[in-house]
Each structure stands twice: as C-alpha cells, then as structure tokens.
Amino acid sequence: MRSRPRAPETVAVAAGRPAATPGGPLNSPITLASALVPGGDSEYARHGNPTWTDFEAALGALEGGRALAFASGMAATTALLELVPPGGTVVAAAGSYYGTTSQLSERVRRGQVDLRLVDVTDTEAVVRASEDAALLWLESPTNPGLDVADIRTIASTVSAAGTAVAVDNTFATPLRQKPLELGADFVVHSASKLIAGHSDVVLGAVVTNDDRAYRALASRRSSHGAIPGALETYLALRGLRTLHVRLDRAEQNARELSSRLALAPQVTGLRYPGFGTIIAFEVAAGPVAAQKMTEVSRLITYATSLGGVESTWERRRRHTNEPVDVPESLVRLSVGIEHVDDLWDDLAAALDVVG
C-alpha cells in the first residue's frame, strides 16, 4: 500500500489514462466525433468529449482541482471573467498579459465592471484594493515583467472578505506553484505554452474546487462554443506527460543564461524570478538595437509565443497593444531545451551585433 501521495512527475505521466484492460490502449485515444451515443455524460461533442475528459483529469490532478479545457487561454479567461456580477470590481495585476488587460478594459468601457490595477509585489496594496472586489486576478510571475506575488498571504486575507482569487499559472505551471493549495479559487492556463510544450497547440484551461463555479464555467464553455478540438487536447495531454523533464532542462538553461546575461554590458534591467523558463531584460542601446538583436539570431527564434522546446524571443513593445509601462527595449526570452552553450553562443553573437 502506498504510504505517500504520488509525486507530481508521476501524476503527469499516470493521470488521465484509460483503465487497464486486456487489449485496451495505453494512451487516451482521440475521439473524433460530433455526436455521441445517448446514455453517457454527453450526446453532443460541444458538451463533452472523452479526449477532453482525460486531459482535464490529468491537469486537475496536478493542480489539485477540477479542470475544464477551453479553445484557448483567452477563452478560459473570458469564461472566468463572465462570472463577475454586473458592476462588480475586478482587481488585476498591472503587469498582466495584454490580452487579459485588454479584455478587462473592454468590459470597463461597456460599464460591465470597475477595474483597479495593482503592483502584485506590494502585498498590502493588493489587499487594500481588494477589500470590496468581486475578483482578484493575479499573474505570478507576470507577463512580461516577471513580478511574483505572495499568493498565500494575499489569498488568505482577501478570501476572508469574500473576494474570489484567480491566478494565471501559465509561467509557473503546477510543478512550480499550486495556487489552489495557496488559497486561490481558480487557476488559469494558456495550455498552448509549457503544458503542451511543442508550439503546435492552442488551448486553455481553468481549474477550481468550487463545484458551483465549475458548473457555471462548463455551461459558458458549451453555450458560447469555446470548446477545444479533440486533436489539440490530445496533443496537450501528450505534452503534459513530459512537462517535468522539459521544465527541468529549460529551467536549468534559463538559470545559467540569466547568470551570464547579468555580466553582459549590453544588458540592463535583467529580470528572472529564480524559477521557470522565461527571462526578460532590456537592451542598453535602446529599442532599435533590441529589435535588431532578436532578428539576427540564428538559433533562438524570433517569435511571439513561448513555452516550447525551442527557444524564442521578441521585443514586447513591437505589439501596438502592449501596455506602455513595458519598457521599449524589453526583450522576453523563452528558454528551451537546447544545449545551453549553443544558446549562449547565439545570444552573445546577437548582443555583439548591437554593441
């Protein structure tokens, strides 16, 4: 008899698999069907699909809650924000992903919510701002500033006052941080990133232990059609199986690259929270040099996404809707699993180009 809970690495490999039956599949099969035979959990694939169920079981087991897969991270975010009552107040990290802040700003323009932006590193300010809020939306680390919140202290305080707490856990993953265990009510993922891990999937997820909220989110997913494809969900589950080995290797690379970047004279404002696969830094020569640097690299790919096995980077302010408080010369580097010396050779050569 097992005397301790299974390690997260084991859960990532073992959870969400079919029952072991003679001649049965080891892996969850892809269910490509729009209609299902009546009598089960679903008769129509917009309301449920066995492939979703297996992915949700695995991610839920890792996060310690019940997971729902969505068509994208933004679809998951939208469904969760719709739980805020009309006129309710949302408190959000000022450095949140621009897709999230754009969604919130649009709701403010429509008169649907009030919005307060806070510095997530200032725990007391976050708590004060959340006193009468319906929802506190945290990113930790934030994208792209990599600020880290004290989730446990914040959640324990604001939850007592009736504020729901949601944490975007995309950068940390459940292997580095479990927000539900820290007191949050919801966890959100862009599963396109580290969860799936191969830059070939667009998928999102919400995890919660609140049964009423779970049912409300499932209803919104179904009625709004924000459903994931069976193939995408299958690929995300396959990627989840190797999350721990990919994350360990990429994180090891990120730590080493961060140490080397700290000594580079071309770099200023280096940001790395000590875990994870994302590094952010500013190029001392300015935004033109930062843009040029990302375009001349030969191994690190100039691309906007992140969390794959390959390393990617970009200057974030090249996007017109990126918040103005993101420095013009800030580069976000998503570190992959290549050999660290090859990554450094490519990075150093690009830095040499900009002087």
TrEMBL record:
List all Low complexity biased stretches: 10-25
Cofactor(s) the protein requires to work: pyridoxal 5'-phosphate
Q: Does the keyword Transmembrane helix apply?
A: no
Cite the residue spans of the region called Disordered. 1-27
N6-(pyridoxal phosphate)lysine: residues bearing it = 193
> Which GO molecular-function terms appear in the entry?
cystathionine gamma-lyase activity; cystathionine gamma-synthase activity; homocysteine desulfhydrase activity; methionine gamma-lyase activity; pyridoxal phosphate binding
InterPro entries, alphabetized:
Cys/Met-Metab_PyrdxlP-dep_enz, PyrdxlP-dep_Trfase, PyrdxlP-dep_Trfase_major, PyrdxlP-dep_Trfase_small
- This protein's source sits in the domain of life called Bacteria
A GO CC term?
cytoplasm
Identify which top EC class this enzyme belongs to.
lyase
**What are the UniProt keywords, alphabetically?**
Pyridoxal phosphate
- Under Enzyme Commission nomenclature, its number is 4.4.1.2
UniProt catalytic activity: L-homocysteine + H2O = 2-oxobutanoate + hydrogen sulfide + NH4(+) + H(+); L-methionine + H2O = methanethiol + 2-oxobutanoate + NH4(+)
**A GO biological process held by the record:** cysteine biosynthetic process via cystathionine
Is Ligase set as a keyword in this record? no
Give the UniProt family note: Belongs to the trans-sulfuration enzymes family.
Protein name as catalogued: homocysteine desulfhydrase
Q: Which organism is it from?
A: Aeromicrobium marinum DSM 15272
Which lineage is the organism of this entry classified under, starting from the top rank? Answer: Bacteria, Bacillati, Actinomycetota, Actinomycetes, Propionibacteriales
